[in-house]
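Sequence design from tokenized structure. All designs in this work follow the same two-part layout: the structure record, then the generated sequence. An example of the structure record is given first.
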């Protein structure tokens, strides 16, 4: 079977350009259109109408694209996937899970073969290479995540920028003057993953607004990385009394590392987290946290898709406001400094 990527390669253009040339959704130069049409004729490419049919007349399947890249925390991804599957079943749809980082090619294959009626896309980057083809295809899609330029897309996410600000606001109210963000693994930032970058922006903006000393530390997810980072934090910032953690697997190892170094939580160091509520509650010290509402986000994404399949207008971007719950891991800053390394 000839695929849209085969046509693109033959014509020397991107798959999204092929889609635009065939659908007429955006202007394409005459020369490019002729090249695409020639490639279509030579290769015998045929579109599959089943992917473009009306709701109820298609496959009754939604595709969920979750590239399992380095730095992705599988348990949290699983929560999102379960919420999408559960919501899809209430609307009579099954879910096809896509886990390879295939980008344009994988999305084009779903569209042209009619395997799914619509698509939920996760692990969204600020400049995501999948965006052009998502904009060009008739296949409805919803992104769980917001790229830098969301025009022409439907997106839903937690407001991670506001979540970072909310954590810092909480620590500032408790009197903390030096704070740090323990972030996602370095490769997540290298990919410019949208939620991670936005949380850093919110954290830094709030720290500047409160005139706090602050720093950001990407970190791996194993116990050795936790111990190394705890030592570095205490060495680099001896006045540190407040930490925000956006790295779920690191929470208990980081607590252990600090306590092994003689730092008590929350007496010496207040700890907040951005994570799902069950993770915060089950930590060795119950954590003050901003919840990542994976169930609500997955459910909203499916509901938005169903509305799009029915031809009902939907908002371009939906950001859920963050909610912070205080637990025992934060306390007012002590007047006397803690012991340092």
């Amino acid at each position: 079977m000839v695929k849209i990527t085969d046509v693109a390669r033959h014509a020397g253009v991107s798959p999204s350009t092929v889609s635009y040339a065939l659908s007429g959704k955006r202007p394409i130069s005459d020369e490019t259109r002729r090249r695409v049409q020639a490639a279509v004729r030579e290769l015998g490419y045929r579109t599959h109408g089943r992917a473009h049919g009306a709701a109820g007349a298609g496959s009754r399947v939604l595709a969920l694209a979750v590239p399992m890249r380095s730095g992705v925390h599988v348990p949290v991804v699983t929560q999102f996937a379960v919420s999408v599957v559960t919501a899809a079943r209430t609307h009579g749809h099954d879910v096809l899970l896509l886990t390879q980082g295939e980008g344009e090619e994988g999305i084009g294959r779903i569209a042209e073969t009619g395997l799914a009626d619509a698509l939920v896309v996760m692990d969204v980057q600020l400049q995501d290479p999948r965006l052009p083809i998502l904009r060009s295809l008739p296949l409805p899609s919803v992104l769980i995540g917001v790229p830098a330029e969301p025009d022409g897309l439907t997106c839903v996410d937690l407001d991670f920028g506001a979540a970072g600000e909310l954590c810092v606001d909480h620590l500032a109210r408790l009197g903390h003057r030096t704070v740090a963000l323990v972030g996602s693994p370095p490769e997540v930032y290298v990919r410019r993953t949208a939620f991670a970058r936005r949380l850093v922006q919110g954290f830094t903006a709030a720290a500047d607004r409160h005139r706090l000393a602050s720093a950001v530390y990407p970190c791996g997810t194993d116990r050795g990385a936790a111990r190394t980072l705890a030592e570095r934090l205490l060495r680099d910032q001896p006045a540190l009394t407040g930490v925000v953690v956006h790295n779920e697997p690191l929470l208990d190892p980081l607590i252990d590392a600090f306590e092994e170094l003689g730092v008590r939580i929350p007496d010496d160091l207040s700890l907040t987290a951005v994570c799902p509520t069950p993770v915060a509650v089950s930590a060795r010290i119950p954590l003050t946290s901003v919840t990542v509402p994976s169930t609500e986000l997955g459910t909203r994404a499916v509901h938005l898709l169903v509305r799009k399949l029915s031809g009902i207008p939907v908002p371009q971007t939906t950001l859920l406001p963050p909610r912070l719950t205080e637990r025992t891991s934060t306390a007012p800053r002590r007047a006397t400094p803690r012991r340092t390394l």
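The radius of gyration is 23 Å. We note this feature because it recurs in several other targets discussed in the main text.
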